[in-house]
Structure formats: structure tokens, C-alpha cells
Design brief:
This is AAA family ATPase. Helix content is 43%, strand content 16%. With 173 residues, it is an alpha/beta fold. Strands 2-3-1-4-5-6 form a six-stranded mixed β-sheet. Mean pLDDT is 88; it is low at 169-173.
Length: 173
């Protein structure tokens, strides 16, 4: 159960590089009605969740589902990296149009941890290490202040723990 307040109908957006623990966290987030996961959508569309060539189609599907669930008033957790500012800008705009709060959840283990976990996954689930470094750099630039300036309602940092993720209280809200 998340330790942060969650208004019904909130759009929760993960911000974190590959192998930072987003999907692991998603299964523990009890107050969430719907988890939208880009990897799963890639698998649905292209048969392989690691196949980046189907990402544009998966993003389109993700946005359609997002629109549907937001209009239903569901609390949605968006389980994708969202490290690029232009990607987040579209999400902020979408939530604003629907009048929904949009909350960022930052996942940011140190780079070595991400690289190690990444290397331990099945080959088709591994992100190229250079891509992971790039994602990690961008994720570090997405500070709480920067995210609030982008229009996020609140920002929380998810602290990974061996027994599961917990919310640390350096979070702004
Ligand atoms: P991607 O963006 O590539 O989907 P992700 O952020 O969803 O990555 P996860 O799949 O949740 O990352 O986690 C990556 C790997 O790290 C998994 O193998 C998972 O079991 C492991 N892992 C996640 N959280 C922890 C943790 N707190 N302690 C140890 N291992 C963890
Ligand atoms: Mg994942």
C-alpha cells in the first residue's frame, strides 16, 4: 500500500531507467486500479516485449488505454521509463485535459545497480548498457523540482528495499 496520499483518478507516472524496479513496484501498489506497462503492450502487439520496433504502436495503444481509463476515473500507474521530458509533457497535458492529478514516482537506484540487474535478466529483456546509461542520466535530471515545474501535482521517490519498495520521505508533495 503506498504511503503517499492518492486521490482517486490520479495518474501515477513512473520515472526511472530500465531495471530500476518499476514493474516490481507496480505489483505492490494496492491503491492502483490499472497498471499500463509498455513491455506488456509490446508483447501483445509484437510477440516480444523487448522488441523496440513495435514501441510506436505500443505507445499508441498505451495512450488509447490511458484515455479510456482516465475518462472512467480509474487510478492508473504508468509503468514505463518516462525519462524524456517530451514524453512527460504529453502525459501532463493529457492529465490536465481530464482534470486529473498527475503524480511522478521516481525510481533511481545507482547506475551500477541498474546495470547489474539488467544483465541478470533474460537476454530479450535486457536494455543495451549505453541506453541504460542514457536513461539513467535523464532520470537524474528529472529532479523533484524539475518535475513540479513540468506540471506534476506531486513527486515521490520510491526507495527500493530488498523486501520490496518503500516510499522515502524526502518526497515533495
Ligand atoms: P524496465 O524498465 O526494463 O521494465 P523495471 O524498472 O520495470 O525495468 P524491474 O523489472 O521491476 O525493473 O526490476 C529489474 C530487476 O531488478 C528485476 O530482475 C527485479 O527482480 C530486480 N529488482 C527490482 N527491485 C529490486 C530490489 N528492491 N532488490 C533487488 N532486486 C530488485
Ligand atoms: Mg518493467
Amino acid at each position: 500500500v503506498p504511503a503517499y496520499d492518492l486521490a482517486p483518478g490520479t495518474l501515477l507516472v513512473a520515472v526511472g531507467p530500465g531495471a530500476s524496479g518499476k514493474s516490481t513496484y507496480a505489483v505492490t501498489a494496492a491503491a492502483v486500479d490499472v497498471v499500463l506497462c509498455l513491455d506488456s503492450l509490446r508483447r501483445e502487439i509484437g510477440g516480444d516485449e523487448g522488441d523496440q520496433s513495435v514501441t510506436p504502436a505500443a505507445v499508441e495503444r498505451q495512450n488509447a488505454l490511458l484515455e479510456q481509463h482516465l475518462s472512467d476515473g480509474a487510478t492508473v500507474f504508468l509503468d514505463s521509463t518516462n525519462v524524456e521530458p517530451h514524453v512527460r509533457a504529453q502525459l501532463v497535458e493529457r492529465a490536465r485535459r481530464r482534470g486529473r492529478p498527475i503524480v511522478a514516482l521516481r525510481f533511481l537506484p545507482d547506475l551500477d545497480t541498474c546495470l547489474t540487474r539488467n544483465a541478470q535478466r533474460p537476454v530479450n529483456r535486457q536494455v543495451p548498457p549505453d541506453t541504460l546509461r542514457w536513461q539513467h542520466d535523464l532520470a537524474r535530471e528529472a529532479t523533484p523540482d524539475a518535475l513540479l515545474r513540468e506540471g506534476f501535482t506531486a513527486v515521490h521517490h520510491i526507495e527500493p528495499a530488498p523486501t520490496g519498495a518503500t516510499v522515502s520521505d524526502d518526497a515533495l508533495s
